Amino acid sequence: MERLxxxxxxxxxxxxxxxGFLNVSTLxxxxxxxxxxxxxxxxxxxxxxxxxxxxxxxxxxxRCPLPVDPEEQAALFxxxxxxxxxxxxxx
Length: 91
Hints:
Number of helices: 4
Number of strands: 2
Low-confidence stretches: none
Structural class: mainly alpha
C-alpha cells in the first residue's frame, strides 16, 4: 500500500506541474476490499482531500439494492460506470 501511495503522490505532483491548467480538487477512491486502509494512508500523506466513492449516493437502487460488501461493489464498479455513458461512446 505504501508504494501505491507514493506513486499516487508522484502522479498528482507531475499532473499539477505539467498540466497546471487542470485543477485536482479531490482524489476519489473506488470501492475495493482494503479501501479504508488506503483511504487512511492517503489522507495522512496527500495534501488534497481524499474520499471514497459511495455507489449508493450515485445510483437509485431502491428496487435492487447494491451489495454492502466492498469486494462485491468493486466487481460492479466498471459495469455501473459504463451504464452511465451515453450511446456516443458505443462502437
